[in-house]
Each structure stands twice: as C-alpha cells, then as structure tokens.
What does this fold into?
Amino acid sequence: MRGKSAFVTAAFVLLALFPLVAGDYGIDLATKIMIFAVFALSLELLVGATGLVCFGQAAFFGIGAYAAVLLSPADGAASLLWLLPACVAASALYALFVGALSLRTKGVYFIMVTLAFAQMAFYVVHDTPLGGGTDGIYLNAKPALGSLLDLDKPLLLYGFTLACLVATFGFLAVLLRSRFGRALAGIKVNEQRMRATGFSTYPYKLAAFVISGGLAGLAGFLFAVKDGFVNPELMSWHFSGAVLIMIILGGLGHLRGALIGAFAFALLQEFFKSEAIFGEFARHWTLGLGLTIIASVALLPNGLVGVPGQLRDRLAGRLTGSRSAQAGKPQ
Amino acid sequence: MSPSDVLLRGREITRRWGGLVAVDRVSLELRRGSVHAVIGTNGAGKSTLINILSGEIAPSAGQVELLGQDVTAWTQPRRARAGLGRSYQRNTIYPTFSVFENCRLAAQARTPKPWQWWQDAQRCEASTSAARAAATRAGLDTLLDRSAGLLSHGEKRQLEIAMCLATAPQVLLLDEPLAGMGAEETERMLALLAELRTGHAILLVEHDMDAVFRIADRITVMVNGAVIASDTPGAVRCSPEVRAAYLGDH
It folds into this structure.
C-alpha cells in the first residue's frame, strides 16, 4: 500500500521537475502523454473499476475537444473558468445519453453499442459542416484565466495539464475507496449478487459512465488547447482502441496502471517512430508497436503493474523450490 | 400464531418457460420463527421458486407478498432493501475481497449513500459494525482478513449466510446451504440455522433429507413444479403420495 502511493508520488514529483531538464520537444511530448494519462484514467474507471468494457471512449474525448473549439468566441480568448466546465459537461451529457441506453446491454453487446454511439459522433463531425469535415477546425485563441494563466505558453500548459492529471488521479483514488467505489467493485465482481443484496446497480453504472465521460472530456479539452486544432480522428475507433490498449498494457484494476500504460504506450510509439533508431523501417512503426503489445500481453497477464509481483513470485517459487529439494534429500 | 407473523407469502405462483410449467400454482407462507423447507427432485422447480420470491425472475402469474405488502412488481434490489435476503446454491461471494469486505459491502446496501464520494468506505460505521456482527454470528470472526476465495467450501457457505445476515433481513431464502458440506460443517450450519430461526422467517431448499427433517417446522414437497404435500415433517413423512413420488418406499 505504502509502496504504491510512494510510486505515484514519485512519478508526479518527477513530472513536476521534468521541465527543468527538458527542451521544447520534451515538454510537448510529456504534455501529450499526461493528457493521454487523464484519458486512460477515465477509461480505467469503467473497465478496471466497474468491469464495463467501453469501446467508444474516444467520442467523449472528441466531444470535449470539439466543444473547446466550437464554444470559444471568434474574437479573443475564452475564460478557462467557464470553457473547461462547459467542455466537461458536454462530454458528460453525451455520456449520460449513451450510458442510459447502452447500459441496458451486457458484455459484447455493450462493447458494440458503445462503439456504435462513438461512430455516430464521429460521422457527425466528419460529415457535417458543424465539425469542419475531415480537415477539422482551428482554435482561434487558447483559453486563459485573466492574465494569470495563459495556456498559449507551453510551460504553463504543461503545469496546468499536470495539475489536471494529479487532480483526476486524486479524485478517482478517493472515489474508489468510498462506498460508491466499493459498490462499483462489487458490480465488477458479481453484479447479480449486488442486486440480491439490495443495490440497484443501474444508477451506479450510469453514474460511473457519466463521470468517466466527463473526465475523457477534460482530456479532450486539454488536447484541443495543446494542439490548437481538432479533427475527426480524435473520435475514431482507433483511438478508442488505443486507450483500451494503454490500460491493458499498464494493468487493469489499478489507477497507476492507467498512468504507466499511457506513458509506456506513448513512449513505445515514439520509439518505433524514431528514424534515428530504425531508419527507413520507422515508416512501419505500427508493426513494431503491435508486436510489442502482443508480446507484453502474452507475457504480462497483469500488465506492467504486475511485473514486481510476477518477479517476486518467480523468486519465491525458486526459493521454496530449492528448499523443498533440500528437504527431499535423505539425511 | 397471528397473521402478522406471516412475513412472506406466495399466492398461486406460476412460471412457464414456453410450454414447460416450471412452477405450477405454488402457494406458501413463511412465518417468523420457523423454518419452512421445500424439497423435491432435481428440476422440481425449487430454485425457480426462490428466484421468483426474491425477484430475480418475474412470475407468469401469481402474487408475492412481503411483510403484508404486494411486492410482485418490485425489483430484486427493492425487495432486498425491504428485508428479503437470499443465498445462492453455488457460491456467489466476491472471491477477491476479504471476508470482512464481503460482509461490509453487503451491509452497505442498507446505508448506500453513494453521493458521499469523499468518505472512505472503511470508515462507514453502520456497515463495518453490521459486517463484524454478521461475520461473528456466522462463525467467521477469526477469518475476517482472509481473502474469500481462499476459504474452504464450508466456510464459503457460512460466508454466504453472513453476507445475507449483514443486510439485516427478516426473511431468509436459502438455496441448498448444506450442499457439498462434510458432517461436521453440516452440524455447524444446522446449529446456525436453528439460532437464526428466532426472529427470521426461513425458507430452506435442501437435498439433505436428514437435515431437513431435523430442522424444518414445515415441509413443502414439489414434483414437476407443483406442490403435492405441505405439512409438518411427521405428516409429510407418512404421506403415501410423498413416499411414492419422492422419498422412495423403504
């Protein structure tokens, strides 16, 4: 328990110190990864904590991002004070609609229904003038908080993103140990038993779905602000799949798994895309990334979070193995 | 016995699956302070009956009354909150949680307060004390920190009962609580049931005939979904229909 919170605290401290040593590229990359981490945390609440495999999480991310662009006034910067809550609310609202309908289904049907709703949102921005079509749209001016916090400055955006990540992590950590969080854990393990015990499970699942959608919207908002640009790709099913892979890679059922997974996924992507290392072959980066992910899922059933435990078990197994071999020896 | 002692009443409960009548116009009354056993061969409709009474499936016809209220249209969680607890034939505990957390989560159904998202569930006084009391009553007080999946089969059955008790029910529907238990575990469970009889109305579906005839105050015998006898153990034992249909003449 102490080791886990020490790990997370250390990670956040390192992230806070990172700008001291990083250049522009490093800051930009780390900002992007932290946004992915918020996004991964939002999905972890559904998949890891509640056992609901949502395959349309990118829709909520995309709605947060598009809302940031579409709600910003044409002249001058919007205030962070209202734009951020508005973007989160827009995503949460769509999540309420999607969740209310899709949570009536289970298992593979739930996966497909959430995918269908995400594709619906995708085609709305892809094929209507509302979202600017395939080209996407630019953000006129990045939101600010008076003269205090101008998110146009990469370093300030980095700090703000880190604050959002820490707040999201802290919020979910508190939420998951509360009565609400424990009920979600029970639903994940055995929903029928929860109902027999007296829990109306549907409102619990819907609340989790809406919170998850809102947090994904927060990540989308940050992404739109960082890039100053949105396009339909943000809502594509590839992105929903990528974030699922992040949390699986990191290890389901642990908040820090989402954190580790987001970093591992993005860094692997950077690694295989690097022409300095792979030269011409870097064009086929998806192959290397895919093979690595297949290998890690096969070798690490509990994700990267489970690696220390796996090592410990192997070590303990070796120790008891040698001990029993000794015991078996004749005196 | 006054009529208010009837805590759960089923009236003419029927369930059809297509052409098959799984439960055929079954009526029964569970009274406070008594154990009402339902016996019958496999496929006689006993589990379907429990599922209908607890609200897991809806009856095709008939009525369920809980504490004098018609609850036929109520969902299962609502019936559970009103005082109807059930255990399952197969263990349906939360294997990855500790014994204590299994009980605490069950007790939490009484004080759900999901909007207090900042408060640690382990500090929820109502559910922690109810969980401890229920686990102690079921004889699990020394195993509170054990992961539920690591319990022995008998202990898991005890945990089923403890989780049921943690919700402070008035009516207990127990689906084969003795299934797969050894002689010693059976004795312990029967002692527990005898103790729970005070203050609860218990419906017991069970295959262990010795146990049923020892503990039940009333026995309902089902064959092919219908009741062929419902009487005291002594009368049921002597009933020629029951002997022919179920107990076997020996």
Observations:
- Strands of chain A lie at 137-138, 144-145, 149-150, 229-230.
- Chain A is about 75% helix and 0% strand.
- The radius of gyration of chain A is 21 Å.
